[in-house]
Design brief:
The protein is of the alpha/beta class and 217 residues long. The protein has one domain (11-212): Rossmann fold. It is built from 8 helices and 5 strands. Strands 2-3-1-4-5 form a 5-stranded parallel β-sheet, sandwiched between helices. Helix 4 (106-114) packs antiparallel against helix 5. The longest helix has 25 residues, at 71-95.
């Protein structure tokens, strides 16, 4: 039996993902604080991870033109980074009964490498051979033009190779196709931060109620 088919013990795995500029990190922190307020053990795990052997290689991709590193090598780096995260952070916390909130996960690998032309289903299968699937995946969806505006306002036009508009449109398309996975919810990422958080809570509420018998208001 593949490792990804084993139970997640007492914990819960929630993913918030989407294109750059969609507001993932902000919503992860708001959800984390909401769980802490309810007395639930919660932690945030980011990808790429801060301590994997591949993180420097991955960060280097942002400062160089696309194509300088092969698509296959990029895929290997991201997949191995996820493997490191699963073994060292995700599964240990799940076994301790934490709600693990993922700020990106292998779904970003599917979308971003899929946007380069690799097969999304093959990437999904490669990762799910070792990585537990989330109990719920929330894809924050915004138009690419709005994402570019947000990135521009935050970084004053300092875009990297993952944030080129034409490429992000392909990445967004792959993310939207993930609604066929079954445990994925596409959440509108436009509007104010509280408005988006309300939508995130609506998506998460049934999962928390089913797992803990607790209603999030």
């Amino acid at each position: 039996m593949a490792e990804c088919q084993t139970p997640l013990d007492k914990g819960l795995l929630i993913l918030i993902d989407g294109i750059d500029g969609s507001g993932k990190t902000t919503q992860c922190h708001l959800l984390h604080e909401a769980f802490r307020f309810l007395g639930l053990k919660s932690t945030i795990v980011k990808e790429p991870s801060a301590d994997s052997p591949y993180v420097e290689k991955i960060h280097s991709l942002r400062s160089q033109p696309r194509g300088q590193v092969s698509k296959e090598k990029e895929l290997k780096w991201f997949t191995e980074d996820t493997r490191h995260n699963v073994e060292n952070h995700i599964r240990p916390k799940l076994r301790e009964g934490f709600i693990v909130i993922m700020d990106r996960y292998y779904h970003s690998t599917i979308a971003y490498q899929g946007g380069l032309g690799l097969d999304p289903e093959c990437i999904k299968a490669k990762n799910e051979a070792f990585a537990p699937a989330p109990d719920i995946t929330i894809i924050l969806d915004i138009p690419v033009t709005i994402a570019i505006e947000r990135i521009n306002s935050q970084r004053q036009g300092n875009f990297d190779s993952f944030e080129e508009e034409g490429y992000l449109k392909k990445v967004r398309d792959v993310f939207l196709q993930m609604q066929s996975y079954g445990n994925v919810r596409i959440v509108e990422g436009g509007g104010s931060i509280p408005q988006v958080f309300g939508r995130v809570l609506s998506a998460v509420r049934p999962v928390i109620a089913d797992k803990y018998g607790m209603l999030i208001r």
